[in-house]
Amino acid sequence: MSSVRTEKEATTTLDEALKPAKNRDADGEPVVRAIKNMAEDTPAAETIDGFHLVIDALKLNDIDTIFGLPGIPITDLTRMAQAEGLRVISFRHEQHAGNAAAAAGFLTQKPGICLTVSAPGFLNGLTALANATTNCFPMILISGSSEREIVDLQQGDYEEMDQLAIAKPLCKAAFRVLHAQDIGVGIARAIRAALSGRPGGVYLDLPAKLFAQTMDAAAGKASLIKVVDAAPRQIPAPDAVNRALDILKGAKRPLILLGKGAAYAQADADIRALVEKTGIPYLPMSMAKGLLPDTHAQSAAAARSYVLQEADVVLLVGARLNWLLSHGKGKTWAQEKGAKRFIQIDIAPTEIDSNVAIEAPVIGDIGSCVAALLAGIDARWARPPAEWTGAIAERKDKNLSKMAATLAARPSPMNFHSALSVIRDQVKARPDAIVVNEGANTLDFARSIVDMYEPRKRLDVGTWGIMGIGMGFSVAAAVVTGKPVIAIEGDSAFGFSGMEVETICRYNLPVCVIVFNNNGVYRGTDVNASGTSDVAPTVFVKNARYDKLMEAFGGVGVNATTADELQKALAEAVASGRPTLINAVIDETAGTESGRITSLNPSTAKKK
């Protein structure tokens, strides 16, 4: 039997206790004594505060990790979350915590959580939130904020800012919770918005006063929501599937193009089966590498330009015809040789026809759509003509042979090819290692040289092509998978998030950072044309020792000037799992301006 009395029971008992006191002196002593006795005899109802409601709501929905940076008003939330069993990974800058949350979302299909302070901290996290939305990574940015009544009257509160209004245009959804009893609903809506349909970033605004609010514990527990089927399957229409199959059957030069959405879907077995049963050559975008091994016989990656120009039917699986694919137009696709016919699998019908006409849209989640196409492939399916697959194989062999000769060279100082050949061999030996990659030339060369063998083992700059994701992505990959991480960083790109090597050391994560140091942005040879003593804008401190930064925090730092030194240091780092930074000294004349997107740099394009 419960010892907690109802409000009616407590009132009745108090009335009875006060009856003898009605004719007593006006000093009220019996009344005071009666009230005191009742207070001691009646246990207070158990309550719960906003802090613990947020924590319990996250735990109820299987969220086990928070990435963030403590400060007013969320410092106690980070302490309490850790005490309640959540893993709290604290960063040196909110943008990198946000990038970590985004990468965690991509790898796990659960929304990554980034927790920040108000105003400036929120704005720092917002960059990562916008990037997550653009890349379709499920992420929730939770920020403390100033009180509404002060913000709305613009009375000058500490870090005053209308954060919800600012976030709305840059994410998939934005919510604010003002009352403790609504915390469960707010977090449930954020989770569902982040995961359903096309995944993306969600903002959740929690004003400071919310955390201190209390309510009855039982009512608080009842107010929490366990999200059921946050990303429900969306089955494609049978006629859409049949239309796509008919077009594929009639193709003379078909091509399957895999995007990072295909990797996120985790429909790995069916995607591989579709490729192999149809016999159609496939081309992976950079974060789709490893869905099938890059060494697979049907991979057309080594003949990329040829297949994009010559294919007559292209099946897009989790890929968008954006700038990374020249919008499906122009010289890349050689439309003058005849119009391409596109089949596109996408969960968002509004993506269809965004750049070119899509003849066969297949709308639904990737797993369901691929399974439906696969069901239509039987023993009577005609494999692509030999002249098509043979022409691809011929170009692949030629390009791979040429690449092998380049990779075998050992110049001094190292160039991008000789250094990346070492990393290529290490990834082949440890295909479970996760590669994080950013830079200009470092990115371009690495994605064509370093083969991947398993899905979701490559993380890079994605749709926006931004720099600064390196250390955040590396921390997330190590935390959520426990696998070794190899971060291939241009020296310029590393500068955006380099201080997070302290975070890597603090949590003793198995991350090896390799900084390709050629003394500058693109290269270290630019000259200041004005004749003043300032170096050119693209030039860094010559012969910088980035390895010393890792040593400063207790990690391993190595200065590698040859391929042999790089090979030894990398093998030891992966084997040991210790935080390591290798300063890979590259020829400062190596590298081209803007890498492979020179055409997007007006001044450079004009020179050419």
Q: Give the helix level as a range of percent.
A: 40-55%
CATH topology of the largest domain: Rossmann fold
From the N-terminal CA to the C-terminal CA, the straight-line distance is: 86 Å
What Rg do the Cα atoms give?
29 Å
Integer average pLDDT? 92
**Secondary structure: number of strands:** 19
From the helix content, strand content and strand pairing, which structural class follows? Answer: alpha/beta
Hey, roughly how much beta strand do the residues contain?
Answer: 15-25%
pLDDT below 50 for ≥5 consecutive residues: which ranges? 1-26
Number of helices: 25
In the sheet with the most strands, the strands line up as 3-2-4-5-7-6
- CATH homologous superfamily annotation of the largest domain: Thiamin diphosphate (ThDP)-binding fold, Pyr/PP domains
- How does the overall form come out from the CA principal axes? globular
Present the secondary structure layout.
Layout: H1 7-18, H2 29-41, E1 47-49, H3 50-60, E2 65-68, H4 75-83, E3 87-90, H5 94-108, E4 112-116, H6 120-135, E5 139-145, H7 148-152, H8 163-167, E6 173-176, H9 183-195, E7 201-207, H10 208-212, E8 214-216, H11 217-223, H12 238-249, E9 254-258, H13 260-265, H14 268-278, E10 282-284, H15 304-310, E11 313-317, E12 341-346, E13 360-363, H16 366-375, H17 386-408, H18 416-429, E14 434-438, H19 441-449, E15 458-460, H20 470-481, E16 485-490, H21 491-497, H22 501-506, E17 511-517, H23 547-552, E18 556-560, H24 563-576, E19 580-585, H25 602-607
Parallel strand pairs: 2-3, 2-4, 4-5, 5-7, 6-7, 9-10, 9-11, 11-12, 12-13, 14-15, 14-16, 16-17, 17-19, 18-19
Antiparallel strand pairs: 1-8
